[in-house]
Amino acid sequence: MAEVRLRKIVKRYDEVEAVRGIDLDIADHEFVVLVGPSGCGKSTTLRMIAGLEDITGGEILIGGDVVNDVPPKDRDIAMVFQNYALYPHMTVYQNMSFGLRLKRYPKAEIKKRVDEAARILDIKELLERKPKQLSGGQRQRVAMGRAIVRNPKVFLFDEPLSNLDAKLRVQMRTEIKKVHQQVRTTTIYVTHDQVEAMTLADRVVVMNNGNIEQVGTPHQLYHDPRTRFVAGFIGSPAMNFIPCRMEQSGADLAVRLTDALTLPVPPARADRYRGHVQNGKLLLGLRPEHITEAGQHLDPGEVPFEAKLEVTEPMGMETLVYFPINGTQVCGRVNPNAGARDGGSLRLAANLNNMHLIDAASGQVI
Amino acid sequence: MATADATIAARPASRPRYGSMSRDRRWALRWSYFFLVLFAIFFLMPPIYMLITSLKTSAEISAETNPWWVYHPTLANYVELLTSPSYLTYFRNSAIVSVFVVTLTMLISVPAAFALSRMKFWGSATLATGIFLTYLIPETLLFLPLFKMFATFNEWTGIQLINKWWVLLFLYPTLTVPFATWIMIGYFSSIPKELDEAALIDGATWSQTLTKIFIPVALPGLIAATIFTFTVSWAQFLYPLAFTTSADQLVLPVGIITSLIKGDVFNWGQIMTGALLGAAPPLIIYAFLMDYYIAGLTAGATKG
Amino acid sequence: MVEAVIQGGEIAVPARRRSGLRRTMQRKSTIAFFMTLPLILLIALLVLYPALYSLHLATLNKSMERFVGLNNFLFLFKRETFWMVVKQSCIFAITAVIFKAIIGFIVAHFVHNIPAKGQRKWRGMLLVPWVIPPAMSTLAWLWLFDPSYSAFNWILAHFGVGPVPWTGDAYWARFSVILVNIWIGAPFFMIMYLASLKSVPEQLYEAAAIDGANWWQRIWYVTLPMMRNIIAITALFSLIVTFANFDIVRILTAGGPIDKTHVFATWAFWLGIQGGDIPLGASVSLFMVPILAIAAIFILRDITKRGNEA
Fold first, then answer.
1. Distance from CA of A69 to the nearest CA of C (A)
2. Do B198 and A79 lie within an 8 Å CB cutoff?
3. CATH classification of A4-226, choosing from 3.30.70.60, 3.40.50.300, 2.60.120.200, 3.30.470.20?
């Protein structure tokens, strides 16, 4: 069994706490992504799991055994580094077989494993080449091959795609997913790119400042964020946060954004927010895709309004429009043919069925 | 604008060549070559003169003819020296000592450099600086106390250390090891840290990481350090002069000076031949491995 | 699942699953320690100890039986030769290093200016003086300076200039020693400066050119500041090596004429080994230390100060 458990893991460097006590359970065969901005502690956590950093407090269990004091090579893990870390003087075959050769596996067994990994990763023709003769994507695949060959309990990925150009990144993302489908090893993957997190993970762990903000499936995190940080981190372009007040007239709730603009809260959500009308510090969270051009026909929950566009960004399949509300810059996604122009004005509709209300003081989503 | 062109032209550096060079740049280049030739003459003239003299007979040397030209070239000097048992002894001693010192130095320096650059342990930074600082203690300070130490050692144990060529095997490393370590530290430091970690996760012990990963990857540095150690050992003059006196114990630099200069009579033809042959091994190594040599020297220069 | 693992070359310790991480750290320290031990022993026994021992030796009398305190030093201070040696050593070192640095800098620039393909050849040729064992090349210079057969004098005679007593006259002898020193050492400076020159980003020069700087201003405002550290370190190394130099003076002039070219090293050798008075020789050698230390402190302080600025 290759589940990984983190219990109250703390990492302190002198006075600074990089990781402030996190708990996490990762099931066997699961693909978990640790995501967050630089300095949030995700790489540190990964390195503690690998054994490359000492654990200041707490316990890490791999496959049921506490591994706090176990050196990396005995933890039965394999790691793929951001800079691939391929041994430059060895061929691809030697790179992939290095770990096995150190453990004195029989030659035939080594060959079998390397060939199998090479087949999965489609690098069979590269086996006799040296790293400097390979492209970035190929090197990354060799690094993965080196990990696969060891047949470990856990794969650890440390921002493996950060060094690749955008196009290659997209390609390699799919490769990694395909490999996981074939090899099914428990994987812990660290990245700062939320797109990678969303596309690859079974579950995503959003970290910030040494703490876990939220753990959930990509869907949960996208549609049901629990903190402002998660809401703003996941999804691109980011969610809009507009300061607002809650108004109540009778049984109906409305969100007042400016003197001119009030948006009625759909009844389905009203119950949740009823208790927060007094709160002076509220933010309306609305994703750009829920602000589109107002069509002829409005669905229930869609509220039209006029917007003075500052900037438009034609993306081809859609156009992003930026306009101010109450001093905040708001982003919306409209049809490329909707007639959006810099400095022009457009009738938009906000779909509040997917709204979020955030308490600005605590950062919690209500 | 013309002045701006001229001043930019004065340093074309490693600029790509555009079609035809402007007149100014061509002139700058001509001046560069002119001065380079002058300096080359200055730097190469003595060794060339050594060669010229080595091909002359004694008669021609003392004649009034142009000393910069050989009128009756002869290989007699070479033949005499290469068949002289004493000269060959010096050569052999130098060779043996240098080879041993190189081996010893690398055996000491490489693990030390690895430990100091990679395995951060208590005091490693201080130690690394300390090695750098030992160069502040020149051999010309140490040779006298060492002399006395060896003499005292002889009194205590009866083992004669003075006037034995193998004593140099202890002394030369004090000069070569710090520099070799410093070079290797530089090369090892430039290896990305992930490589150690990958090796660690792959299951390598520290010494396996050193032998299977670091040494192959830092091979140019090793070659550079080896070349330097050899050159320094071969060229040593003070220590052998102080510590070896009888003819069969001498190494080349000392041997040439002491034996070829008898009293007031200088057999210059032979001296120059001897000196040239003595300079040959480092020069030959340099000719073949020049790039490693220079790379090793300048490894620290770009980091400042 | 318990694997016995051999750690390091010299220690065999079985690794147990439950061994403390502290234990592993200790093992790393122990291995590292053993790896550096030969180096430490070598330096301690054959560099540090003799250096300290020489302090002790300097306080003994000639036969090394009696403690005479600072008498050796007092004796030296009273001797005119000693002060000549101090003066000569300092002048040689400073003059030689300055010229080596200047020549090295100039030549480096010229080499840097020519197309890259040719640079390798020129670099190769120009480094030769540094590769040849100094003892050998000094012999060549000795021959070039020979009182009767000097090849230089032969050329000068064609211009009607009288024969120059390169090693016979005190002032010429000093000049000759410095000249040989420069000849041997300038290539080293050239190589280091060349490498450093290459690392100065081209864009800085372009920006300076646009700002209107001429070639001299570019050197002063762009090149030199970027190369400060390397200039300082090379100068320090060279100062020490030149100051403590033995081979050149010994072979070229043996300290003469009339002790006018003696430096610390050769005079210490003369007194200590040839004169048999080791304590006195040690005292002379020791005198180098304070001077070297002062130079080192100044230059190192300059480097760290700039390091902090950067």
1. 5
2. yes
3. 3.40.50.300
Of C81, C304, C100, C95, the residue nearest C182 (C-alpha)? C100
Token pair belonging to B110: 């490489």
pTM: 0.78
Give the best residue of C6, C7, C18 to mutate against chain A (max A CB count within 10 A).
C18
Taking contacts as CB-CB distances below 8 angstroms, the residues of chain B near C251 are 237, 257
CA distance C17 to chain A (A): 6
What is the assigned CATH class of domain A240-365? mainly beta
CATH for the stretch C71-309 = 1.10.3720.10
C-facing residues of A in 27-56 (CB < 8 A) are 54
| Domain boundaries defined on chain B | 2-54, 79-298
Residues of chain A found within 8 Å of residue C17, distances taken between Cβ atoms = 65, 70, 74
H or E, element range at B25: helix B23-54
Contact across the interface for B201 and A78, Cβ inside 8 Å? yes
Q: Domain limits of chain A?
A: 4-226, 240-365
User: pLDDT tens digits for A77-134?
Assistant: 999 988 888 888 889 999 999 888 888 889 999 999 999 999 989 899 999 999 989 9
Distance from CA of A236 to the nearest CA of B (A): 32
Q: What is the pLDDT of residue B7?
A: 44
**In residues, how long is chain A?**
366
Interchain contact C20–A (C-beta under 8 A)? yes
Task: Give, rounded to a whole angstrom, the gap between the first and last alpha carbons of chain C.
Answer: 52
Closest CA to C263 of C91, C52, C55: C91
Which SS3 state, helix, strand or coil, does residue B257 take?
Answer: helix
pLDDT in tens, A331-354: 999 988 888 888 888 888 888 888
Report which secondary-structure segment, H or E, holds B232: helix B219-235
CATH class of B79-298: mainly alpha
CA distance to partner chain C, nearest, from residue B231 (Å): 7
